[in-house]
Each structure stands twice: as C-alpha cells, then as structure tokens.
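Q: I'm a student working through a structural biology exercise. My instructor gave each of us a protein and asked us to get a predicted structure, then write a short paragraph describing it. Mine is CheY-like chemotaxis protein. I'm not confident about reading structure output yet, so if you can add a plain explanation after the tokens, that would really help. Here is the sequence I was given:
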Amino acid sequence: MSTNLGAIQGLGLSMVYGFVKQTGGHVKIYSEVGQGTTIRMYLPRSSGQEDVQVAIIDGPVEGGPETILVTEDDEGVRATVVEMLQELGYRVLKAPDASAALTILESGMPIDMLFTDVVMPGPLKSAELARKAKERLPSIAVLFTSAYTENSIVHGGRLDPGVQLLSKPYTREALARKIRHLLNNEKQVALSAEKSENIDPDPRDNTGDASSEQAASRRVLLVEDNALIRMSDADMLADLGYEVLEAESAEEGLQILEQAGVEILVTDLGLPVMSGEELAREVRRRWPHIGIVFATGMNEAPSLEDGPAAVLLRKPHGPDELKTALDAVLPLT
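A: Happy to help. First, here is the predicted structure for CheY-like chemotaxis protein. I'll explain a few features afterward.
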C-alpha cells in the first residue's frame, strides 16, 4: 500500500478507491493491530451478456503484387515491416517521415496503399498526409498503425472516426490479412463506382430463373460502412430479386433486426466499433435461423461455433459471385 516507513506514501489505495468509485462501488477497510488489514471491494453486478472470446483465424496468409508506401520514423520497425511486406510479394517504398512520404506520393509513382504510423516527427502529421494522399490518389488505401488504441487516438483528436488502424504490436499474419482486406475493399469500391457510371437502363429479366423466384420472397439485411459499396451491393441484390434492408454499422443492423424479419445477413467484417464477426455471433445467438454471408477482402471467413457455417463472399465481387454466395446460404435458411 505504501513504501518503507518514513518514505513517500504510495498511491495504491488511492488508485483502488478511484477505480471502485468510478464503477459505482465502494470500499471498506478494517485494520487490527497484530492481525493485519482486510479490504473489501463492492462492485455493482452486471446483467449484461458475457463477452464471447473470438476465435483467431490461423489459416494461410495472402500477399499480392501491389505497391505499398511504408511511413515509419523508427528505423528498426521500418526495416522489419518492409521485409515482411516484401516476403508477401508486395513492392515496397519507404519514408522516414510524412514529408518524405508526400514527396514520393507527388512523384507520380503508382501507389496502392499508404501504411503510416500515427505519431510522426516534423510539421506534417500523419492524418494530413493521409488526406493529401487521397487528394492525389483517390483510390489509394490508407492504413494507420500505433501502439495506442483506436479509441484513445480518435478521442485525442489525432485521427478521424472510422479510420483503419492496426494496433502495435502486430504479427505478420495480422498485417497480411489487414492489408489484403483493405486492398480488396478498394477494388470493390472501384468496381462499385464503375457500375454506378454504367447502369444498364434495361434491367435483366429474371422471371424464368428458379433461384430468382426463390429470392423474391427473401429479405436481406446488408451491413456495409462504405456508402458506395453498400449502394452497389444493394442494387445487385435488388436485381437478383431480393428485398434489401441497409445499415452502415452493426449497431444499426441490430436495430433493424429487432423490428423486421430477415432471412439472410450480408455483412462486411471491417465495420467500425462492433465488427462484422461480432455482429454475426450476436445474430447467430439471437436469430439462429438467419443465413450469414461475410463480404470481405480477407481470404477466409470466421468460423461460427453454432449452426451452419457462414458463406464467404470475397471482395472484389460482382453479381455472379454475390448470387453464388446467396444460393449457397439459401438452403440453410
């Protein structure tokens, strides 16, 4: 509780008191000479659902041929990241600070992803670097990394809400999956933009398609935080004959599910706050009859312990891949 007799008093008890009071509880201390001290902490009982331990995907990782710009001021960390990415097949450019990274971005060299530490030395900060990168290369994917949590970074004003963050320390597998997911997500955005520019004025005739007749009575909840991808996927679902409900977050999706009957959930994995995997587990617990499709840039879908397996829909995808995934989950609903 404190240091040696006569020394400065420690902070143990004050920290305990502060923690307990913040949680709505209280502390009782009883001391008796020659017997010792008893401390009892009383904390409010929680009636919420116990957190479910999420299974980590440990399958093979996947790289690619894209070009990634790594911005990291720590030379040792930078060298390690560059080596890992090169082993995955990526072409890697490197910069020790944001200003050097901006020079590379302005060189006209094709770059698919900016991977930058949040805290960078110099006058140009990482958030501003990301904005400038998007101005020059609108299709570039941006991934931040930091030893701080996403909540502390966003609440501290260093980054905007909804950014993609990989927390340090991270494994080679976590790095590979996060990068592949974001790169594939950007490809899906590009496909969605292309589709919106080339809308067929004559919608396809699905009246003779047996699976479309089956789809006509099905309602799909589409959960996707990227507005362009969500709009494109909703159009494809409607073209396939489904009734579509849309949500941009897992929390909004749960609110819809509480009010409307749904047969199929199509969800992105990389949702803000509550992830697509957490959403799927909650849906499986509360509505086990709903079929689940994971639309993701990753090469594997999380496994759900109870009920039928979820179906993987990889990004980028078109209407044919979407139809195949829905056909696979329809018999399960």
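A: Here are two points you could use in your paragraph. The chain has a mean pLDDT of 81. Residues 172-197 form the longest helix (26 residues). It's a good idea to check both against the output above yourself.
Q: Great, thank you!
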